Amino acid sequence: MPIEHIFQIHRSPCKTVLAITGGGAEIIGELLRHGSGSATLLDAVVPYSTDAMDRFLGRKPEKYCSEKTARLMAMVAYQRALGLSKANEFAGQEIIGIGATCKLKAENEREGRKHEIHVAIQADCKTGVSSLELTADRTREEEEKIAALLIFNVLARHCVVSEIDLSDVIETGEGKNEEVIEKYEFVSRPVGDLLKQRKISQDNNYETLSMARINLKEPEAFEEPGEPGEPEKIRLVFPGSFDPCHRNHILMAILASEKLGEPVHFEISLTNVDKPPIDFISLNQRLDSLRIHKNENFMGGICLTNAPLFLQKADLFPDSTFIIGADTFNRLFDAKYYGGTVNIPAILKHFKEKNIRFLVFHRKSTEFCINPDVPELCEIVSLDEYEDDGTSSTEIRRKCENV
Q1: Residue 184: what are its φ and ψ, rounded to 5°?
Q2: How far apart (Å, rounded) are the C-alpha atoms in residues 254 and 387?
Q3: d(CA 73, CA 333)
Q4: 17 - beta bridge partners?
Q5: Where do the Cytidyltransferase-like domain residues begin and end (predicted)?
Q6: Spatial separation of the C-alpha atoms in residues 253 and 247, rounded to whole Å
């Protein structure tokens, strides 16, 4: 790749962490071999084994080489870049994370094995991914070069540097089907800032909390005009990942709204306790699954937060009732869920001080583990009132991936 393009990237106000697995790692050498690499590269990691990938992501991915895994890698890289760039010396710099996962030609590989490259980028208000399936017969070295070039182009585009024309190395046109497929999602500044506001406050033992409201009347709008949040007007909250929202979620929301006479506000925390934050492509997919119900009577709105724990949600939504399932209820009053850092009396005290109640729905094959001090905070909806058909978001995602 042209040296002048490398130096143009180094002159851009961009600081990045690269995470690469399966191929394309030579891009690291290209960025460093000519000098001035520290102007761009904060860190580079190559979690090549499955154990290394699991540790890097903090979880075992559904697939090691996929668009989704590339986005997870980019998000972890972005969070690492934020952590490395907090010093004043990086003021004014643009922070990004890039994740790349590849499945390239291997010795004695099975017949029909797909060769694919997925490169994702995570910035403060943008998630993007470029995917390429290689169908022509090439050497491993040739495929490695293509992977490195695709990673370079994703970085170059963000730095407003000319991309390298891939038409000389991939086969397109009549009878050829090698094509770079791209997806990008952008969010407003208040939503992007939710991923950055992770400073530990002196008053609390957890992150500074924030919230952004979704404007359901405008499909592309991620916050309402004026001051975001207004939690004092929200009385009924349904927290969840909604990946995607499905039949059981909606039945729970309808019944809760009828019982309490309040509209339901769905809450999604972009940050998680034990998983990478939600990227903006995944976020928009989840929002789409909720937006289709925007005109129904039970719908109050959608709130995005950086509050993964219910203790934190209680601070954002005081004087509210939370809609939860039996499995969440069991974790909620289990000290292990909080890593042993709090005890049950402290949890109960916090919820009582914030005037929080819980509307708990039975789930199939889930037994309640009820602490004797808990019932006064809860109303349990029996299976006689609510029919759980066993539908799960995980099963829906698996079916969609197999289509």
Answers
A1: -140, 140
A2: 13
A3: 32
A4: 43, 97
A5: 237-398
A6: 10
Residue with the two structure tokens 């980019």: 74
Looking at residue 224, the DSSP 8-state letter turns out to be -
Per-residue pLDDT of the chain (403 residues; tens, 9 = 90+): 889 999 999 999 999 999 999 999 999 999 999 999 999 999 999 999 999 999 999 999 999 999 999 999 999 999 999 988 865 555 668 999 999 999 999 988 888 899 999 999 999 999 999 999 999 999 999 999 999 999 999 999 999 999 999 988 998 766 668 999 999 999 998 899 888 865 443 344 445 788 888 877 665 555 544 444 444 479 999 999 999 999 999 999 999 999 999 999 999 999 988 789 999 999 999 999 999 999 999 999 999 999 998 989 999 999 999 999 988 888 887 767 666 666 778 888 999 999 999 999 987 767 776 666 777 889 988 877 877 766 665 665 566 555 4
The answer to whether 268 and 305 have CB atoms below 8 angstroms apart is yes
Query: Do residues 85 and 5 make contact, with C-beta atoms less than 8 angstroms apart?
Result: no
CA distance 104 to 141: 10
Q: Residues with Cβ < 8 Å from 10, sequence gap 6 or more?
A: 36, 37, 39, 40
Instruction: State the CB neighbour count (10 A cutoff) for residue 189.
Output: 11
Q: DSSP states of 169-199 as a string?
A: TS--STT-----EEEEEE--HHHHHTTT--P
CATH code of the domain occupying 3-186: 3.90.950.20
3-class SS of residue 56: helix
Query: CA angle, 397 as apex, 126 and 111 as ends, to 5°?
Result: 95
Residue with tokens 């602490």: 371
For residue 225, is the peptide bond before it cis, meaning its omega torsion is within 30 degrees of 0?
Answer: no
Residues of the chain with CATH 3.90.950.20: 3-186
Are the CB atoms for 147 and 132 separated by under 8 Å?
no
How is residue 72 written in tokens?
């997870």
The alpha carbons of the chain give a radius of gyration, in whole angstroms, of 23
Range(s) for CATH 3.40.50.620 in the chain? 189-402
Does pTM top 0.85 for this prediction?
yes
What token pair was written down for 271? 């940050």
Strand 321-325 to 357-361 pairing: parallel
| Distance (Å, whole) CA 326 – CA 364 | 9
CATH 3.40.50.620 is the classification of domain 189-402: yes
